[in-house]
Amino acid sequence: MTEWPFEDPPNVAVFTCLAITSGEDWVHYVSHDLDDGAWQFHTSDPDPVPDDDVRIVALKRITEIDPSVCELFNLPCGWHAWRDTPESEWNREPKE
Prior knowledge:
Blueprint: E1 13-17, H1 18-21, E2 29-32, E3 39-42, E4 54-58, H2 59-65, E5 79-82, E6 91-94
Antiparallel strand pairs: 1-4, 2-3, 2-5, 5-6
């Protein structure tokens, strides 16, 4: 990556989980929240993340873990994106 693609700075705090930061699982679902512009990066596990597994990291760290999330640089606030496998294309739509 030669130029930072996101409008948010590389050091903006984002929400994710231990399974993603440790490399145990991959980014399946991304939310760009309407109310505060926060980014969330989730696995495909539908269960809520236990409090002790929640991680707050820099957006740059997520792009290092999974460079494909850079494709979501223009995901508007209030939208979400998901994919079926780590190799799949990102699907996007407004959150209801």
